[in-house]
Specification:
With 258 residues, the protein is an alpha/beta fold. The chain has eleven helices and ten strands. Strands 1-2-3-5-7-10 form a six-stranded mixed sheet, with helices on both faces. Strands 4-6-8-9 form a four-stranded mixed sheet. Helix 1 links the parallel strand 2 and strand 3. It is globular, with a radius of gyration of 19 Å. The protein starts with 6 loop residues before the first strand and ends in a 9-residue tail after the last helix.
């Protein structure tokens, strides 16, 4: 068994970078890798010094799906009681902004992981898809729901029913990806976006993320109520006072996260 960590973690100022590290298996998302990723995400979510998180993959893939060997002989009850899929909800629950830097394959669980992030940047080599239909199952970690919200029902239906993949440029054209970068500049672009976000008020970023997520997950009425509540809440923060004062004084704000 390899002594290499399943997730390589590094910190660059206010940014944490998490690299999925099973390159020999195209970063297949084994239960151990997912547990490791969740542990790092929750650790940085609780760290006041970290303001944005990047997830990427080692080698030729972001993540080429779940670890099929871990599921091949499982029963429905084993899948239910193991929490293998249920624990993925903890990834989507991270409060800080998470940026996916997708290099290579993002298939099955890898595509679902990317879609749990808040911003998706893709290398020109990236490919996205939900090929679960090819092995007799369907997506189980949000693929049918998030892909439909990103691409619309007809494109999502075709991808899910045929198992077809789309290129990074197709994904960007249809709204699944924010933008496409040359492979050599992908992480630098992710760092640039993360640094831009990290310079904002952490409280405003967190509440803005919650409100935007609500737009995809609730009704318009519920989403508007969340937006307005978060708007009002920020007027109790020191960052709101500092931000508006800095604007009036024509200087850069110094946000404290309070």
């Amino acid at each position: 068994m390899s002594d290499e960590p399943l997730v390589i973690s590094s910190v660059e100022g206010p940014i944490a970078i998490l690299t999925l590290n099973r390159p020999q298996a195209l970063n297949a998302l084994s239960p151990a890798l997912i547990d490791n990723l969740i542990r790092h995400l929750e650790m940085y979510d609780a760290d006041d010094l970290i303001r944005a998180i990047i997830i990427t993959g080692a080698g030729r893939a972001f993540a080429a799906g779940a670890d099929i060997k871990a599921m091949a002989n499982a029963t429905p009850i084993e899948m239910l009681t193991s929490g293998m899929i249920a624990r993925w909800a903890r990834i989507a629950a991270i409060r800080k902004p998470v940026i996916a830097a997708v290099n290579g394959y993002a298939l099955g669980g890898g595509c679902e992981l990317a879609m749990m992030c808040d911003i998706i940047l893709a290398s020109e080599t990236a490919q996205f898809g939900q090929p679960e239909i090819n092995i007799g199952i369907i997506p189980g970690a949000g693929g049918t729901q998030r892909l439909t919200r990103a691409l619309g029902p007809y494109r999502a239906m075709e991808m899910v029913l045929t198992g077809a993949t789309i290129s990074a440029h197709e994904a960007a054209a249809h709204g699944l990806v924010n933008r496409v970068c040359p492979p050599e500049t992908l992480l630098d672009e992710a760092r640039r976006v993360a640094q831009t976000i990290a310079a904002k008020s952490p409280l405003a970023v967190q509440l803005a993320k919650e409100a935007v997520r609500a737009a995809a997950e609730t009704t318009v009425r519920e989403g508007l109520a969340i937006e307005l509540r978060n708007f009002y809440l920020l007027f109790a923060s020191e960052d709101q006072k500092e931000g508006m004062r800095a604007f009036i004084e024509k200087r850069a704000p110094n946000f404290s996260g309070r």
